[in-house]
Amino acid sequence: MKLTHVFTLTSASLISTVAFAADLTFQTLDSNNDGVISPTEAQVSEELAKQYRELDSNKDNELTPVEFAQFKK
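User: That's the sequence. What structure does it adopt?
Assistant: Structure tokens below.
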């Protein structure tokens, strides 16, 4: 019984994570609407946080919409 419960919770968590990843748009990540994604805003996505420095092609510590377009989810 407990194993079934754990499996159900794990499955729900994975489905939730996949659904959240599909909603990662520049607009949703730019929470303060300043036109760039800061390192703090990028922390919402572990994958984006990992790729942040690589994506920041001009090394200004901000992601523009053009830089974010290179994000591979």
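Confidence is low (pLDDT under 50) at residues 5-20.
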